[in-house]
Specification:
Radius of gyration: 18 Å
Number of helices: 4
Strand order of the largest sheet: 16-17-22-18-21-20
Distance between the termini: 42 Å
CATH class: Mainly Beta
Shape: globular
Number of domains: 1
Helix content: under 10%
Largest sheet: 6 strands, mixed, barrel
Length: about 325
């Protein structure tokens, strides 16, 4: 039976010089909000004032915007400010993009994107399945390692009805050491597995000596791909190679064109996505203003991460225009 891979990244952005509006929020930060693990992706409860029921959204650093499915909510396609309660806070005017982007069988209703997260210091604790937004962190754990990251990208999201939303820099880029090679990656909590480009895999020697784990059907903004699934023998944050080393990390291989819009948006050559098959072994604390992630020791090191059972025929939001 064919499985389906959840990956929600590479939303193209129209070039723009204007900054995004300041996020408005109410409530007390510091509440640990539980999440469930879908396809190795964190899902939280979201309550929209215009809806009669709560729904589950993926918390996704790979998406610069918040998205809701028009098949679940009554709104027509477009961009609206909505009163949303999520992640322990109330966002009275949260920009939400409604598109027809999920099949009727999908168990989620949308995405909470990085445009929320970059306004906070925040923590995602995969082992204990909680997400916490902070003004300032409590005392840091001396066992954690400091890993630097860059916030890059930004522009405009053009919805299918022509509405435009300005978006700031949201792309969390980190340097990795994969099998001894340095590579720039997008940290993507909305991706099930790691993803690497075909060119980067070729640099590592291709599929020679790697396990063939079949294919996954991936629905992305660039179309549908049958992606090869295999393993990377070692992956680590470059800033903490011994502390964060994990072996046998499940990954998919994508054509180089998969990363092209991300390169245009960020001005950086990004050749990998750091997804749930690696991230789910850690607690990550993002000190946004410092550009530092405090990474806990992994719950298991140098151990095979189990492959999840996927059954999600998800397709991604429509591709957006990029204007040079």
């Amino acid at each position: 039976m064919r499985n389906f891979l959840f990956i929600s990244v590479l939303l193209s952005l129209v070039a723009c010089d204007d900054a995004a509006d300041t996020l408005k929020w109410e409530g007390e930060t510091g509440t640990a909000v539980p999440f469930t693990m879908g396809s190795l992706t964190p899902e939280v409860t979201v309550d929209m004032a215009t809806a009669s029921t709560t729904e589950r959204f993926v918390v996704d650093t790979g998406s610069p915007v918040n998205l809701a499915d028009v098949g679940i909510y009554p709104e027509s396609a477009g961009i609206y400010d909505r009163d949303v309660s999520a992640l322990g806070l109330r966002f009275p005017e949260l920009p939400m993009i409604y598109e027809d982007w999920l099949p009727d069988t999908a168990p989620i209703a949308g995405i909470l994107g990085a445009s929320i997260l970059i306004n906070f210091n925040w923590e995602i604790d995969y082992p204990n399945t909680t997400i916490t937004l902070y003004d300032e962190f409590p005392q840091l754990d001396t066992a954690d390692a400091a890993v630097t990251f860059m916030l890059k990208g930004g522009g405009r999201y053009r919805a299918t009805d022509g509405d435009i939303l300005d978006v700031g820099a949201t792309r969390h880029l980190v340097w990795l050491d994969i099998e001894g090679e340095r590579v720039l990656a997008l940290l993507d909590t909305g991706a099930t597995y790691m993803v690497v480009s075909q060119s980067f895999l070729n640099l590592l020697g291709g599929m020679d000596g790697r396990p063939d784990l079949g294919t996954e059907e991936m629905f992305t903004v660039n179309g549908t791909f049958d992606a090869q699934v295999t393993e990377l023998s070692s992956v680590a944050f470059e800033d903490a190679p011994d502390h964060s080393l994990i072996t046998d990390v499940t990954t998919t291989i994508m054509p180089d064109t998969f990363f092209s819009e991300l390169e245009r948006e960020t001005g950086k050559v990004v050749e990998a996505l750091l997804g749930g098959s690696y991230l789910s072994l850690f607690r990550l604390r993002f000190a946004t203003d410092e550009g530092v992630i405090y990474v806990s020791p992994p719950v298991q090191s140098k151990a095979r991460h189990p492959r999840p059972t996927l059954s999600r025929p998800l397709r991604m939001p429509p591709a957006l225009e990029v204007i040079p």
